Amino acid sequence: MHHENDARTGLPGRCLPPIVDSIDRTSIKEDSLKTLPIAALALVLAAPAYAGDIHGHVTCTGMRDNADAVVYVDEIPGKTFPAPTEHALVDQKDMQFQPHVMVVQVGTTVDFLNSDALLHNVFSPDKCADKFNLGSWAQGKKRSYTFKKPCAATLLCNVHPEMEGFVVAVPTPYHAVTDKSGAFTIKDVPDGSYTVKVWHPKLSETSRTVAVSGDTQADFELKK
Ligand SMILES: [Cu+2]
């Protein structure tokens, strides 16, 4: 064991995190272990095997623009993901659900905020969202609902029938919504072969297998 002081902490080398002691020293030359900065070594040890972004373009045929298509990696056999602790937020502002379409991982709690100076309501007619009805609440306040299963939930307001929004709950953390140009990026997907699905409020769902190997391009076209 070396007892030189760590340049960053000034602590003796033996106080380094225990992960350093778990290195298989037969596979790393003693010399490189001495010279490789500890921070870099920790990064190497923490990095997943290989991963990349799935990016591409969705054409929404017949729509005004290519926004609001939800692109996501469907259930991965044998793999589960812990429910996110961070809440998502849908705002009711200027008489609209904002964002109009939001995607979350199953298990996510969505906070619904009323930013208008009048009463709104939030309910969903969809069974996969328990047909929830959160009631009505004043400006600046919020109420929550946790999406427990995969669901493309329509959001409605029983005060203003013209208001409509969507929360799409999907099985993995690998998801994105297209911008007006149709562009999307799903960040940090581990290399592998996946079923990628695309959902849109007004167009037919589509899906296909995408083989991810580092940054990977995948384009889709949706029709009625
Ligand atoms: Cu309303």
Give a structural overview:
With 224 residues, the protein is mainly beta. It has one domain (51-222): Cupredoxins -  blue copper proteins (Immunoglobulin-like, Sandwich). The chain has helices spanning 30-35, 38-46, and strands at residues 51-60, 70-73, 88-93, 96-98, 101-105, 109-114, 120-123, 133-137, 142-146, 151-156, 164-170, 175-177, 183-190, 192-199, 206-212, 216-217, 220-222. The longest helix is centred in the N-terminal third of the chain and has 9 residues, at 38-46. The radius of gyration is 23 Å and the shape is globular. Copper (II) ion (CU) binds at residues 120, 157, 159-160, 163.
What key attributes describe this structure?
binds copper (II) ion, globular, 2 helices, mainly beta, Immunoglobulin-like, four-stranded antiparallel beta sheet, 224 residues, four-stranded mixed beta sheet, disordered N terminus
Question: What is the structure about, briefly put?
Answer:
The protein has helices at about 30-35, 40-45, and strands at about 50-60, 70-75, 90-95, 95-100, 100-105, 110-115, 120-125, 135, 140-145, 150-155, 165-170, 175, 185-190, 190-200, 205-210, 215, 220.
